[in-house]
Amino acid sequence: ANDDGGGGGGDDRRVRRRGEKLCHDDEEENAEEKQQQQQQDNGDDDDDDDDAEEGRAAKTPRRRSAEFKRKNLEMKENWMQFFLDSSNDVFVVYGLDEGSDTPHYMYANSMGLSLLGFGGFDDPYAVVGLTNEQIMGKDQAAVCDAAVLECFRTRERVDIVHPVDIPGLPVLTYESVYNFVDDVNGDTGTKFVLGVCRDITKRVESERKVRLAQAQAEEATRSKSLMIARVSHDLRTPLVGVMNATELLLQSVLTPDQRQLMSLVGTSSRLLLALANDITDLSSIEQGRISLELFTFDLRMCLRECVELVRMRAEEGGVRLVLDDDDDDALPQQVIQDGIRFRQVLYNLLYNAIKFTPKDGRVTLRARRMSEQQQREQVTYKKEKADDSSIKKSWVVFWVEDTGVGISADVAPKLFQPFSQGERHHNETISAVNAGHERGTGLGLVISKSLAELMGGSLELVRSTLGEGSLFKVVLPFATPSPSSVDDEDTARANDHHAQMPVEDMDDECDHLRSSLRVMIADDNPVNRIVLQKLMQSYTNQKPITVSDGVEAVEMATGEQRPFDLILMDQHMPRLDGSEAVQQIRSILSSRGEEAPMIAIVTASAMSGDRQACLETCKTDDYLTKPVIKHELERVLRSACTMKMCKNNITR
């Protein structure tokens, strides 16, 4: 048994050893297999690692792109919020719940939070859900809500200007713009209104101040115009007496010394009148009240008249005066322009040239029509207001040249400025040459330049040299009617029953009627009444009736006595002014079936437009400006004679 057991044990040991060996063999085999499997697995792992690396390499750009987009979006949002919070304007977003008519806040930038009373909050969504009525007054909320609702309804931009009065804050004025935004984040159905509100309080206040300043300036201008009109009237009224009385005295028998003194009085009064006219014209130009009165006149004749107006002044100073227009056959004859303003421009230039030209000097007026090429090159002048093919434009250049004291280069730019005189800046030598010449106000050139531009042309200083003289140039357009459009007023007059009389017979009849005219003078100034009465007596055999105010004029003109043929009515009188007196006279006589006499308004008002206003509103037959000039008075007397002849012919 032991043997068996021993033998058996040995076998077992052997078996175990074999088993171990087998096991070892198996383990070795298994180890080898595992090693091989591991090597294979390692190979596979290497392959997997390669694949994973390749996958990671493939996935990295996408991951980086997404990360970049995320960060870029965050940066844009941050920058956008930064910009919104840095703006001085208010940015708010309104939402509107379905079925509601009260918009509510969804967002506000930093300035919006501050305005709405949330200055201590950094969250732009701190106002979400709040309404305007909860933040501001009911009236203000109604204005803003109405604009926002209008934007929701029309989906169009809405602009409003409204006050913002939040408790604890000063009242401000805002300009708000609301725009409708539909589904900004995609297909979510979200709709809201973006409001941009700007504080315009300072701008509104500035505009208010500008309007106030403009109103004050306009009022000052009106006051200035009224003052100038009054001063002009008050200045011209006594001048009328001085000038007319002087003229009457000069017609009487005087000693040589008396005549010389009266001539000085007349000269001084004319200078005062010129000053009054210059100031009046300058005021009218500054206010834009001067308008052109176009009519047809003879250009060459007008040039000769301008020269004759200043010839006496030139002869007194020993200055030779020359008109050079004979060599230009192209110079138009009959032209259409404001002849009165044209004469004024040339007169001012000629008078200034003579004034600053010493004895034995020369002043020349030249006139030339521009060539066709030169006229085409005229691009700096006003365009014609109407295109009338029957009227042809001719551009004419006028030069006024003198051999006088000249103008220095530093003074020349100031010539066309009000109250600026070049002679005041001349050196002592030039002042000595110019000694004895009267000084003006420096307004002549300013007025002339403005009038030239008003007529569509220009005035400029071409050249000037101290001690040698100056050259001024005026360029003006003139309309020349074609034969087909010649005004046929003369033809109409020829058909009148007067025109059928010989001219000599008409003149004789006018002279006869003039001596029998019954005239009334209405003026509150006794000097003017006396002077006008004396002037009238020199033309008529009857002494004119005089009254001192409008009430007396109405009573006298509508009384039972023989009717008047001519009434000279002062415009400004106590109790009843001239305009109202004229209307009452015409009304009373018309109600009785009687024809009113010829009535001429006599006034010291010389502002541009006064003549037309009087003729239209006062319904007068004529208009005379003080001082009354002899040839103007003769014209009125002739018109009165013509009217009386008409009445006599009708009566017959």
Helix content: 40-55%
> What's the average pLDDT?
75
Uncertain segments: 1-27, 379-390, 421-437, 485-506
Q: Could you tell me the number of beta strands?
A: 17
Based on CA inertia axes, which overall geometry fits? elongated
Radius of gyration: 51 Å
What amount of the residues lies in strands?
Answer: 15-25%
Separation of the first and last Cα atoms = 199 Å
What structural class do helix, strand and pairing data support? alpha/beta
How many H/I helices?
A: 18
Tell me the major beta sheet: 5 strands, antiparallel
Spatial strand order of the main sheet: 2-1-5-4-3
How is the topology of this model organized?
Elements: H1 2-86, E1 90-95, E2 104-108, H2 110-115, H3 132-135, H4 138-154, E3 158-164, E4 172-182, E5 191-199, H5 201-250, H6 256-287, E6 295-298, H7 299-316, E7 320-324, E8 334-337, H8 339-355, E9 362-369, H9 372-376, E10 391-402, H10 428-433, H11 444-454, E11 458-465, E12 469-481, H12 489-494, H13 503-515, E13 519-522, H14 526-537, E14 545-547, H15 550-557, E15 566-570, H16 578-591, E16 598-603, H17 610-618, E17 622-625, H18 630-651
Describe the protein:
With 652 residues, this protein is of the alpha/beta class. It has 18 helices and 17 strands. It has helices at 2-86, 110-115, 132-135, 138-154, 201-250, 256-287, 299-316, 339-355, 372-376, 428-433, 444-454, 489-494, 503-515, 526-537, 550-557, 578-591, 610-618, 630-651; strands at residues 90-95, 104-108, 158-164, 172-182, 191-199, 295-298, 320-324, 334-337, 362-369, 391-402, 458-465, 469-481, 519-522, 545-547, 566-570, 598-603, 622-625. Helix 15 (550-557) runs parallel beside helix 16.
